Amino acid sequence: MSTPILDLRSPPIDQVGVEERAAKFRTRSIKKDSKMQALRMALGLIDLTTLEGRDTAGKVRQMCYKAAHLHEELPGLPHVAAVCVYPAMVPVARKEVEGTGIYVASVATAFPSGQSDRQLKLQETRIAVDNGADEIDMVISRGAFLRGEYSFVHDEIAAVKDACQGRTLKVILETGELCTLDNVRLASDLAILAGADFIKTSTGKVSPAATMPVTLVMLQAIKDHFLATGKKVGMKPAGGISDAKTAIQYLVMLQETLGSDWLNRNLFRFGASSLANSLLLQIRKQTTGYYQSPDYFSIG
C-alpha cells in the first residue's frame, strides 16, 4: 500500500543565499595542529571506491590493502571508513578487509542509472547483503521523482531499506540530474522520510557531482529533521572531492551546520577514489616539512 506523502512540503531554497553561505566556507583557513587533526579525520571518513566495468578481483584486493595500510612510513594513521564496490565484488572485499574494522559498501538498485524493475533492484540488494555487504548505496529513480511521482520514490526507498536487513542504507539523489536546489531539498526530505540512514549527493558518474551549495542544502534537511524528531541522519558528498583543501572545507561546513556529533564515520563520509592520496601528501608535508612525489602512493 502506497504511503500518502504527496503533501510533503519542503521549504523553498534561496539559491543566492545558499551559494553565498557556501562560498564563505571556502575562505576559512585551518592551520597547524587543527589542520593535521582535520587531515587525519578526513582520512577516516573516506569510502574508498572502485566502480568501473573493468574492475577485477585483483584491483579490488589492491584497493582493500591500501584501505587498511594507507602509508606504512607514517604510523598511527586511521584506516578509511569503508571500501565501496559492485555487488559481484563484495565477497572479494569482504575477505580482504576481515578483521580491519573497515566496512564493505556495495552499490545496488541498477547503479548508476536506477533504470530497472523494482523487484530486480531488491534482488540485487539482497544479493549484496547476503554476500557480506555492511552498507548499501542505492540510487533513487530520478525520472519518477522529476515526474512528481513522490510516493513511488518513497516506497521504493522503503522497500530497499527493508531488503537491507538492518544494514546501513545510503540513498543517492544524483543531484546533478535534479536541476534545482528546491528539488535537492525535496529529494533529501523524501529519502529521510523513507528511512535513509545517509543521504548522498552523487554516483560520481554525472557532472556536476558534489558541490558545496548542494551539500549545504542536504545538511540543512538533516538538521531540520533532527530538530523535529531527534533522529540523526548521515551525509555523504561524493564525486569531485579530490583534494585535501576541499575536504577540509566540507568538514568546516559540516561542523558549523550540524555540529561535532556528525564528525565521525557513522554520520559522515566522503565518496572518493583519489582524495586519500591528497590527504596523505598533506599529512606527509605537515609531518616532515616537505612534499613527497604523488607517484610514491598507490592509485588503487
Cross-sheet strand order for the largest sheet: 7-6-5-4-3-2-1-8
* Helix share, percent: 40-55%
Based on CA inertia axes, which overall geometry fits? globular
Question: Which stretches are low in confidence, meaning pLDDT under 50 for 5 or more residues running?
Answer: 1-5
Question: How is this structure best described in words?
Answer:
This protein has a single domain (32-296), classed as Alpha-Beta Barrel (TIM Barrel). The radius of gyration is 19 Å and the shape is globular. It has an 8-stranded parallel β-sheet with strand order 7-6-5-4-3-2-1-8. By secondary structure, it is α/β, with parallel strands linked by helices. α8 (181-194) crosses α9 (212-229) and α9 runs parallel beside α10. 45% of the residues lie in helices and 11% in strands. α4 links the parallel β2 and β3 (103-108).
